[in-house]
C-alpha cells in the first residue's frame, strides 16, 4: 500500500510541476534558514565546554561604580586570597601585550595579535592540546614560549621550531619549548603566542605608583559555596599596598562557560557575544520554521480544491478514510524529506558565505549524524506533523459534494485557516518591524557625530624603543603633499589609560582635594586640530603650538563632573606628586573613543611624555593623500626597524559593531525569507478564499457589481488579517527591540514610523501578490461559473 501511494505521489509531483515547485521551494527556504540558525545557536552554546572540569572554572570579575564591569583584575590580587582557601584548587592568569606585539625571529619581524603572558600551569589548567612539549614542563625555567600550530608554520614553515629563540618588542628573548594545537573555534581563549617569565604578574606599586591587570581564572572544589568564596575575595581587597585601587571595587565570579555570552563587561581581550542575540535568533528560527509549516499546510489545503473530484472518485470506488489519510501523509513526508535534503545541501554550500558574515568556522558533513537526524528523522517527523491536518480535512469530504466540486465537501473549519494565516502574518510583521528598527539603529551608529573626524584619518603605531625619533618623523611626514595635519599622541580608539588627578596639590600631613580617576590621553597641541574636535571653551592664552607640562585640557563630561562649566577660568589640576599644578587652558566637546554601547567617559589631555606617545594620527587630503601612504611607509621604515602598519579610524569604528553588522545582515536575510514564505502562504490563502467565493462573485457581477468593487471585496478579508497581525506584532516587536537597544547607551527612540512603514510595505506586497487571482476571478464570465452548479 505504501509503495503504491509512493508511486502515485511521485507521478503527481512530476505531473503538477508548478504545485510541486511552489510547495518544495517554500518549505526548502524555510528549512534552510532554520538549519543555518540552528547551527549558529548550537555553535554559540558550545563555547568553552570542551575543557575538562569546565564547570569548576570561574573567571574573576571586578565591578566599579564609576567604570562599570571589567573582565580584568589587578594581576597579583589573586595571590592575596587564593592560598587561604583549600577549596580553591588552582588559578591561572593571562595578560595580553596590547593589540599587537612585535615578534622577531632572526632578521624577520611580525606584528602579531593574541600574544599573552601565561602562568606556568596553563596547559594543565586548561584543556588545550600540545603537539610538541609537555604540559607539566613546557614553561619550567622562565622565559619560555609556546606557539600555536598555525603561527609556527607562519614563522618556520615545516621546520621544527623547538629550541629556537624569538624576541618580543626587540627586548626580551624567549626559548620556544612547545607547539600548541590551534585553539578550537568554539574557545573564548584564542592565542598565537604564550610567553612565560618570572614576575610577569607581580606589581611593584611602591616604585612605579601603578598596577597592571590580567585575566584571572579560579578552579574550585565542586561543592564549594560560591557566595562564601566571593565574600572571602572581597574581604581580601584591602590587603595589598595598592588598596586605593580596590577599595571601591566589588568582585564576583563568572563561570568559564558563561564568559562568551553572559559577561557583564563590554570590552575584553577575547571576542564575546551576547545571549540576547542567541535568544533573538532562536526565536527567528522557530518563527521561520512555523511560517514554512503553516505555508505548506495552506498550500496543500488550497490545492485540495483542485483535487475534489479525485478524492470523491476514490471514495466512490471504495477508498477508506484511512487510505486517504495514508496517501496524504505519504505525499507530505515525501515533500518534506525532499525539502530537508535540499535544505541540507543548500546550507552546506552557503556555509562559507555564512561563516564570513559571522566570523565563524561552522561545519556540517554529509552522511554524519547531523545528516541522518536532519534529513531522515526530522523529515519524517515534520512530514507527519504538517500533513496531518490536510489529511484529516481532505478525507472528511462527502463523496457527492466532492464529485460536484462543491467546497462544502470539505468540512474544514474556516477559523483554523484564518488562524493559521493570522499567525503567519503576525510572525512576518514582527520580523519586518524588528528589521526596520534594527536598520534605523545601525544607520544611527554610522551617522552619529563622534565629536571628531574619522574620514581619511590614519592611525600609525610607533616603536616604543625610539621615542627620540618621534618628533622628527612627524615633522617629515608633514612635508608630504596630501598630508593635511599630523599629531603625536596616545589617542586609542577602544583603549586608553586610566589615571588619577586631583583638584588640590599634595601637602604633607594634609588630606588631598577631590580626586578623579579618569581616562587620560597624552598628546601634542595638534591632536584637537588633526581630529577636528570642537571647543566648548578656550583660555585666552591657549596656543596649540605651545601646549606644555604646565597645562591641561579636559572634556565636557569632566568639566561638568568638577562643576567648572559655568566658570572654567583659573582652575588647576594636580598629578600625584605635582605641587605647582597644571592650568586648565581648554574644554573640548565630548568625543567617543569607545563604541556607542558605552557612555562618553570624563577624560583629560596632558602634554606628551615618553610613555604616553605611542602613535601618530595623520589627516590625509582625501584620495590624493591616500595615494601617499606608500611614501609615509618608506619614511617610517627609514626611522624604525619594524613592519609598517596603519589603520583608518573609520575602519576601527566599524570594528566596534562588526558583530552587530554581521548579525544584522543575517537578520535581513532571514526576514526576507520570512516575507517570501508569507507571500507564498498568501497565494494559498487567496486561492482558497477566492475559490470558495466564485459563485458569490458571479452573482454579484450579474447584479451589476464592478470589477473594482469585486477586487476590494475579495481582498478585504486578508487585508484585515494583515492589519490585525501588525497590531498584534507591534508590542512583541517593541519588547524585543527595547531589550536589544538597551545595550546601546546612544540609541534611537522607538517611534510609530517603522511600524507604519512595515505595515504599508507588506500590505502593498500582499495586494500585488493577490492581484492576479482576484482580477482573474472578478473578470470571469458569470454564466460559465453558474453553469458549473
TrEMBL record:
GO cellular component terms given for this protein: plasma membrane
Please report the record's description of how this protein sits within the membrane.
Multi-pass membrane protein
Point out the signal peptide segment: none
Q: Where in the cell is it found?
A: Cell membrane
Query: Could you tell me the keywords of this UniProt record?
Result: Cell membrane, Membrane, Transmembrane, Transmembrane helix
The molecular function GO annotations come to: transmembrane transporter activity
Q: Where are the transmembrane segments?
A: 20-41, 280-305, 325-346, 367-392, 419-438, 669-691, 718-737, 744-770
Q: Where does the MacB-like periplasmic core domain lie?
A: 20-231
User: Which residue intervals define the domain ABC3 transporter permease C-terminal in the entry?
Assistant: 284-396, 669-782
Pfam assignment, any one = FtsX
**UniProt-recorded name of the protein:** ABC transporter permease
In which organism is this protein found? Roseivirga misakiensis
Organism taxonomic ancestry: Bacteria, Pseudomonadati, Bacteroidota, Cytophagia, Cytophagales
